[in-house]
Write a structure and sequence with these properties.
CATH topology of the largest domain: Growth Hormone, Chain: A
Number of domains: 2
Helix content: 55-70%
Distance between the termini: 63 Å
Order of helices and strands: HHHHHHHHHHEEEE
Low-confidence stretches: 269-312
Mean pLDDT: 75
Shape: globular
Structural class: mainly alpha
């Protein structure tokens, strides 16, 4: 909710290039948050048990609410306010949701971030299974992604007033398209992805998202000057809806994909014995990768039992 209200407040008090710069600063802060949150959570767990995290969140929310109540005045002018009535709010949402330009801009932002969200939702499979890293090496994925997003937000803020917003958004989508081509080309050209090359396209894609997102958000808010709060909330709803659909579709295909991936990684069996990481048994009857003793912390897929190969 804070991001939704914050967008509307920024557009209420700032205009033009100043609004784009402030929106870019907000994007940088939200890029830092995923990096700071695990560190803070680790400190809290080292100090107290896990319920302390929720007590900290409740205390922080209370302090933030008091600060907003005392220091942040209402930015929406009284003549432009809508009545707080379910019927009026529903009619306003329907009017915004039927606007063709709003739908195009929201879908452009939603699907662009959805490509990155697919990696975020599949981070355990990507880091542990595909890259073969450990449970404490997720930084190989998240640090380049966050760095790309912060750099894109910084460049977007610095370019405000120097580069036209439409051109800046086109540059952002071009970076995302180039990242997609690099990602596909790399994965088609190598047998096993490895760091850092497997995560560099993700960083470039995050850079493109942060470059275009402030421009798209301001364009959406400018479509409805008297309903900026409603437009901001509906934009967030469309983004979450796209992410939910992507997560659902990827979950639907995760089991077959995991099965194919594990079959491709299994050692080859030859008449003379088994090659690869697995070793033939003394009888030479089967081969396979040794089972990990830490199966509890690996992502589980409903792919059935691990396939075994036998000699004729």
């Amino acid at each position: 909710m804070g991001l939704i209200v914050g967008r509307a407040v920024i557009r209420d008090v700032l205009h033009g290039h100043a609004a784009q710069r402030m929106m870019s600063h907000v994007s940088m802060i939200f890029g830092i948050a995923p990096a700071v949150a695990p560190i803070l959570g680790g400190w809290l767990l080292g100090w107290q048990r896990w319920p302390a995290i929720f007590w900290f969140l409740a205390a922080f929310a209370t302090l933030l609410a008091l600060a907003v109540w005392r220091a942040l005045p209402e930015t929406h002018p009284p003549p432009a306010r809508l009545p707080l009535h379910p019927g009026a709010l529903l009619r306003g949402y329907l009017g915004i949701g039927r606007h063709p330009r709003f739908l195009r801009l929201s879908m452009a932002a939603g699907f662009n971030f959805g490509a990155l969200f697919l990696y975020i939702a599949s981070a355990p499979a990507f880091v542990l299974d595909l890259l073969g890293l450990g449970e404490r090496q997720f930084g190989w994925f998240f640090i380049p992604m966050i760095a790309g997003m912060m750099l894109g937000a910084f460049v977007s803020g610095r370019a405000a007033g120097r580069i036209d917003g439409r051109r800046l958004a086109n540059l952002g989508f071009a970076c995302s398209g180039a990242a997609m081509l690099l990602d596909i080309g790399y994965n088609l050209g190598v047998a096993t992805p490895a760091v850092p090359w497997a995560v560099l396209p993700v960083s470039l894609h995050a850079f493109g998202i942060a470059l275009a997102f402030p421009v798209i958000t301001l364009a959406i808010l400018d479509l409805f000057p008297h309903q900026r709060g409603s437009a901001s909330s509906l934009q967030a709803f469309f983004g979450l809806l796209v992410n939910a659909v992507i997560a659902g579709v990827s979950r639907r295909w995760s089991a077959p994909a995991a099965c194919i991936w594990r079959w491709a990684r299994r050692p080859s069996c030859w008449p003379a014995g088994c090659s690869g990481a697995g070793k033939a048994t003394p009888g030479g009857k089967r081969c396979g990768r040794p089972r990990s003793r830490r199966r509890w912390n690996r992502p589980r897929y409903n792919v059935g039992r691990r396939a075994r190969c036998t000699h004729a």
